[in-house]
Amino acid sequence: MFKVVNWMIVSRSQLLVDLLDCRWPQEFLVKLAKATPATMSSQLSSHQNSLVVFDLATIDLQQVYQLQKLIEREHYAVKTVFLNFPKQVDAKFLIHPATTAGVFYCDAELSQVSSGLNEILKGRSIIPNDLHKSLLSDIADDESEHLTIREREVLQALLSGSTNLDIANQLFVSESTIKTHLYRAFRKIGVSSRGQAIAWAQTHMHEVRV
């Protein structure tokens, strides 16, 4: 169990920040710091925050991924919560079992969020059942379905800024074949865009380099 004293909300919505600032300090007896993606790192270094809440409605998912990785590397005691988690976009790559304490979908009511945060204060993790099952399924898939050598080569090429046509020429295959490799690799590593794949590869490439 961890004791929450200082929380931080990372959002570009001043309206949401003001709303939560009126409610959460009194409701949970916490101090609520406010940050933007650009100021989060410096504020984390100067304050003893134990919980960071990301507003995914106002921040690019790839940027949140990088900030989440920063927390994992440099602030291992800090837990994270995601508000406005998208249902139509696969954003499971953001969730880390060691740091993610809560996930709330974009249609969650404020009362549901408050109830979930009370559970998080007690040391529990709050993740929707369907998302939790999907994460468990991905873990099972990871154990049996690994990146092929060709998929690793394609991911490696992404890091150098190569286009699909560039990669196809390098590997002497068609551009459509590269698209197929990318689709399969994206599904295996749990990302849904080229930018997310590059962000993933920047962190995990030492594991997939051939």
Automatic annotation (TrEMBL):
Keyword Transcription regulation: yes
Source taxon at top rank: Bacteria
SMART domains listed in its UniProt record: HTH_LUXR
Keywords assigned by UniProt, alphabetized: DNA-binding, Transcription, Transcription regulation
PROSITE patterns linked: HTH_LUXR_1, HTH_LUXR_2
Pfam family of the protein (one): VpsT-like_REC
Residue ranges annotated for the HTH luxR-type domain, each copy included: 140-205
Name by which UniProt lists this protein: LuxR C-terminal-related transcriptional regulator
